[in-house]
Amino acid sequence: MKRKKKKALILSAFMILLLAACSSRTNVRDGDDYIYCLNPDKTGLVKVSYEVQGEDVVEEAKDILREMQKPADETRYTPAISKKIKVQDCKLRGSILDVDFNSEYRSVKPLEEKLMRAAIVQSLLRLDGVNAVSLSVDGEPLKNADGAVIGLMNEDDFVENTGSSLSSYQSGTLTLYFANKKGDKLVEQKMDVRYSSNVPKEKLIVEKLMQGPTGNGAYPTINPDTNLLSVTIKDHVCYVNFDSTFLTSVYDVLPEITIYSLVDSIIAGTEATQVQITINGETKAVYMEKIDLSQPLEKDMDWVAVNDDE
């Protein structure tokens, strides 16, 4: 009889532990809403289930930041943000979320700050309508250890590391379209690249276009001061989000050449069949007072030079 009771107690204890594991906030399943916190050792990020509250994006962002400061409900994670750090301002500019912290932010040790920043940015990017996050301290843009302004951040700035494995690299050849000497046609250029497997190919293509051609006979098309905010592909549409600097041309090329250098290059190298260009998350823009960017664009190979004389 005692043996049966002992077995029953062991079974009950096991069931309690099993239920506790299943109900753990770190047991995030597909489709669950979640935020990022730190692991107990503060060496990595942990997904923690949480249903965001708020009537608009800014209120939801504030709710997330508050939750990231609350004491942990269990030992499997720790808050990402210290209680001493206060959110002084939070506002939305187009699709850019600006968050300003008090001076206590600067007291965080460098390694922990990187993880805290990664948790903050990746949690806020889960909000609808937020494509990039900008952080500041007492109104001054956040800087890294070298004193350089960090600027806008999106998901491509942080590699989610669940097993401490380093990202792998791969090689490939991109087909890119740049301007000809006259600026009235596109010329094709093959570019061999080696890149991290964590970098989406569509982002790599846009970045290479922004850097300009490497060979003779091809010329840049995109204002080099332009900031790329985000690049994503959904339902075969590639959404490329720039800041407003993109609308200012500094090269003597036709407006169509700049636009279709992007469109034709992206469609040539990805599964996208259309490209939607946005400015600070907004589609209500016209490039150089000529090209309407309110709708996705399809490739147009008529702008590509047939021979080298064009």
Spell the H/E element sequence: HEEHEEHEEEEHEEHEEE
User: How many independent structural domains?
Assistant: 2
Q: Terminal Cα separation, in Å?
A: 96 Å
Number of helices: 5
Average pLDDT over all residues:
87
The Rg value, from CA coordinates, equals: 24 Å
Please give the share of residues in helix. 10-25%
What gross morphology would you assign? Answer: elongated
- Amount of beta strand: 15-25%
**Largest sheet: number of strands, sense, barrel closure:** 4 strands, mixed
Low-confidence stretches: 13-22, 161-166
**Main structural class:** alpha+beta
Number of strands: 13
Protein name: Sporulation protein
InterPro entries: GerMN
Keywords: Signal
Pfam family, one: Germane
Describe the structure.
This protein has 310 residues and is α+β, with helices and mostly antiparallel strands. The chain has 5 helices and 13 strands. It has a 4-stranded mixed β-sheet, with helices on one face. The chain has a 3-stranded mixed β-sheet with strand order 9-10-11, with helices on one face. The longest helix has 22 residues, at 2-23. Mean pLDDT is 87; it is low at 13-22 and 161-166.
